[in-house]
């Protein structure tokens, strides 16, 4: 984002936006950069995100025009945030600001890293994130664009689509036509971008622009952080990293080797190393990286994953005794009771209580959307049902629809 100054009035959170003749109330400020703020907004049962760009004192609309033009050209991919529209907001201080109306997403990889508490994420989560981001990059790079700011904060989970999506295209550019001097964020910056940024700071014109390879470097660092559970900014800035990053990656993997099965660990390590060559020409492309054997291994989510990543399906544990399952009248009563309770929080599409393993005695509730299931999860967790404390997690919609119920989720 370009650095701009703004008055306190302009930075104050608006109470509402009028978008295409409809009033959207601001529920929360989700983030603030130097050039834009992002808000969660609602109108009736609909929710979205608004990215409001600060007023440029020079009168230009560079940041807004750049991001909106890139987003318009790359719409339609499931792993890229959806742009619903653009509008001008007139605030009470008489200032007009340019805004983007965007798909509202959920937890970011940055938040997931904080919650990992230096433990590292499950192979299922790392594989899911890596595949989704590589799919987005394959599409983006095929269209000729470089994201140029891939980092944990710019990869968000979509509860309704059950996938990770790329956001924030404020530094993106067409390969071969780099119109941004300073790209990428410290800690996720490729060596060639580091050099180019330094030259630009010194006022020296660089002949060659950065390529799509900078995005693969950033993703390699993100995946290494997800595996280790640690922020690696200081590590990647160290002389030891510059001298032999491969040895440091090996050390990180050998330190965690006991936690994970060996073969997937080797495949993930090799995938990450393929993205972290100092020479951008030697780095894997996004399309080639998707062919890694790491993506052919099936993983089940951990219970922590199912708590962290919202979906439209809720799974309730510690609710049903075996005795309820084999008395048909009692079983039907329980189903009706659970439906009645769960419909207090949103529209229930289906409800399943398996009588046999896998999933025996667990309650699976499919809601019309993830907003309803999130509200239900918040309000049901810790409640008592028939004298027992309810444990509520989310559950992958795709697995539920296929009738695939995990026997054990560690």
TrEMBL record:
GO cellular component: neuronal ribonucleoprotein granule; nucleus
Catalysed reactions, semicolon-separated: L-threonyl-[protein] + ATP = O-phospho-L-threonyl-[protein] + ADP + H(+); L-seryl-[protein] + ATP = O-phospho-L-seryl-[protein] + ADP + H(+)
Keywords, sorted A to Z: ATP-binding, Kinase, Nucleotide-binding, Nucleus, RNA-binding, Serine/threonine-protein kinase, Transferase
EC code: 2.7.11.1
MF terms in GO: ATP binding; protein serine/threonine kinase activity; ribonucleoprotein complex binding; RNA binding
Domain Protein kinase per the UniProt entry, residue ranges: 24-295
CDD domains in the record: RRM_UHMK1, STKc_KIS
Domain RRM, residue spans: 312-390
Residues holding ATP: 51
Biological processes, Gene Ontology terms: positive regulation of translational initiation; regulation of protein export from nucleus
Annotated localization: Nucleus
Leading EC class: transferase
InterPro entries (UniProt xref): Kinase-like_dom_sf, Nucleotide-bd_a/b_plait_sf, Prot_kinase_dom, Protein_kinase_ATP_BS, RBD_domain_sf, RRM_dom, UHMK1, UHMK1_RRM
Task of the protein: Upon serum stimulation, phosphorylates CDKN1B/p27Kip1, thus controlling CDKN1B subcellular location and cell cycle progression in G1 phase. May be involved in trafficking and/or processing of RNA.
PANTHER family with a match to the protein in the record: SERINE/THREONINE-PROTEIN KINASE KIST, SERINE_THREONINE-PROTEIN KINASE KIST
Name recorded for this polypeptide: Serine/threonine-protein kinase Kist
């Amino acid at each position: 984002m370009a650095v701009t100054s703004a008055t306190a009035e302009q930075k104050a959170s608006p109470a509402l936006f009028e978008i295409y003749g409809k009033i959207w109330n601001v529920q929360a400020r989700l983030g603030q950069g130097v050039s834009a703020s992002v808000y969660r907004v609602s109108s009736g049962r609909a929710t979205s995100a608004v990215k409001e760009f600060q007023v440029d004192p020079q009168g230009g609309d560079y940041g807004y025009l750049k991001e909106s033009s890139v987003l318009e050209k790359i719409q339609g991919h499931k792993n890229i945030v959806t742009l619903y529209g653009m509008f001008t907001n007139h605030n009470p201080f008489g200032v007009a600001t340019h805004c983007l109306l965007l798909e509202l997403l959920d937890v970011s990889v940055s938040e997931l890293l904080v919650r990992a508490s230096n433990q590292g994420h499950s192979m299922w989560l790392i594989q899911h994130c890596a595949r989704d981001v590589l799919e987005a990059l394959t599409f983006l790079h095929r269209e000729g664009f470089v994201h140029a700011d891939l980092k944990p904060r710019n990869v968000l989970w979509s509860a309704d689509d059950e996938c990770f999506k790329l956001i924030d295209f404020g530094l993106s550019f067409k390969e071969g036509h780099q119109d941004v001097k300073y790209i990428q964020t410290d800690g996720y910056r490729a060596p060639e971008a580091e050099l180019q940024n330094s030259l630009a700071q010194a006022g020296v014109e660089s002949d060659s622009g950065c390529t799509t390879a900078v995005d693969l470097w950033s993703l390699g660092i993100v995946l290494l952080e997800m595996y280790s559970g640690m922020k690696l900014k200081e590590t990647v800035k160290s002389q030891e990293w510059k001298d032999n990053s491969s040895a440091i990656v090996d050390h990180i993997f050998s330190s965690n080797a006991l936690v994970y099965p060996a073969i997937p660990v080797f495949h993930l390590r090799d995938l990450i190393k393929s993205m972290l060559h100092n020479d951008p020409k030697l780095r894997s492309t996004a399309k080639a990286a998707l062919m890694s054997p790491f993506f052919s291994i099936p993983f089940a989510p951990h219970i922590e994953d199912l708590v962290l990543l919202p979906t439209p399906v809720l799974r309730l544990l510690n609710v049903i005794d075996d005795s309820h399952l084999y008395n048909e009248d009692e079983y039907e009563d329980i189903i009706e009771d659970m439906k009645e309770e769960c419909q207090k929080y949103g529209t229930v599409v289906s409800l399943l209580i398996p009588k046999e393993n896998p999933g025996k005695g667990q309650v699976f509730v499919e809601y019309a959307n993830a907003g309803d299931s999130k509200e239900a999860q918040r309000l049901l967790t810790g409640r008592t049902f028939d004298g027992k404390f309810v444990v509520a997690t989310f559950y992958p919609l795709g697995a539920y629809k296929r009738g695939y119920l995990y026997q054990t989720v560690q």
